[in-house]
Amino acid sequence: MDKLRTRASSINRALDQVGDKWCLLIIQEVFWGVNTFSGMLEATGVSRGVLSNRLKWLQAQDCLRKRVATGGGRHPVYHLTRKSVDLYQMSLMAVAWEERYFPPPEAGKVHLRHRSCGNTLHPRLRCGTCRQDVHGRDVAYHPGPGATRDIRDKKVRRRSSLSASDVPGEHSVYRNLIDLVGDRWTANLIALAFHGLQRFDEFHQELPVATNILADRMRFLVQQGVFVTRPYQQRPLRQGYELTEKGWDLFPYFLTLLQWGDRWCDPSGAGRPMCLTHTLCGENLYGEVVCNHCGEELSAHYVDFSIGPTQDV
């Protein structure tokens, strides 16, 4: 099987379910306790029709469940399922990236406390084997048993006009990250760059997307400081695209999303489309999001959070 066009399949089965910008925003709001239709409408700035569509989609994917409100409430509420709760480590990596590159004002600052050790925590990603921090440069890839070619129809749709600044929710703590990865093509380009792709024609060979749309996404990622262009040929001048540190630091988010897709998005049971090796220890890579104090792997049930100027959580 071709190595090219199998790489995209590894991340796309997760993106197919929750990679849309609106789906990510909705799940984020439910994580922070906003679980009614009106609350999500106000928090996300989405239209009623789009919100209704995405809520139906997330229910169909078993990522949300709608229930009648207790206490006599007339409006239903939406709850996370076991499947969507398992996205928590991805959310933690999103918060960590956002706070590094888009530090919020005190009123929007997220404070996390690990119940097990009682400390305010800053989540970190480590290798489950050697316990060292994982960086995207220290990872090798090869197709896994579930590898398939990306055979989607060529897409020509442009990006959503919504930008991060248009999202009104006070709890939208990683809105800038969602602005980058909430579009399938920008998410695919970042993921493929982790594999070492740099040239326009390499990305185009991998993805079923029109060249004008691909060029639009490349420009966007350069403007956002995720890619930087470097010439690899002078006559004629041709530019390659390399990840910046800001781009490389998105790797923990993508790894946790990839692992979620491997666990929950394999209806055929064929296995992982892509296998990862941690080159520092030579073992298969499984990333663990852990407390920076006690080293315990983090789950939603053992982390308290608050948003605001104080650190009382």
Helix content: 25-40%
Major β-sheet profile: 3 strands, antiparallel
Q: Strand portion, in percent? A: 15-25%
Determine the number of helices (DSSP H or I, runs of at least 4 residues).
Answer: 12
Contiguous runs where pLDDT drops below 50 for at least 5 residues: 152-161
Strand order of the largest sheet: 5-8-9
What is the approximate shape?
globular
For the structure shown, list the relevant keywords:
two-stranded antiparallel ribbon; alpha+beta; 12 helices; globular; about 325 residues
Report on this model:
The radius of gyration is 20 Å and the shape is globular. The protein has helices spanning 7-18, 21-31, 37-44, 48-60, 82-85, 88-101, 175-181, 184-194, 200-206, 211-223, 245-248, 251-264; strands at residues 64-67, 77-80, 110-114, 124-127, 139-143, 227-233, 238-243, 274-278, 283-284, 287-290, 303-307. The longest helix has 14 residues, at 88-101. The protein contains twelve helices and eleven strands. The strands form five sheets. A three-stranded antiparallel sheet has the order 5-8-9. A two-stranded antiparallel sheet has the order 1-2. The protein is 38% helix and 16% strand. α6 runs antiparallel to α12. The protein starts with 6 loop residues before the first helix and ends in a 6-residue tail after the last strand. Residues 152-161 have low confidence and may be disordered.
In short:
By secondary structure, the protein is an alpha+beta fold. 38% of the residues lie in helices and 16% in strands. The strands form 5 sheets. It has a 3-stranded antiparallel beta sheet with strand order 5-8-9.
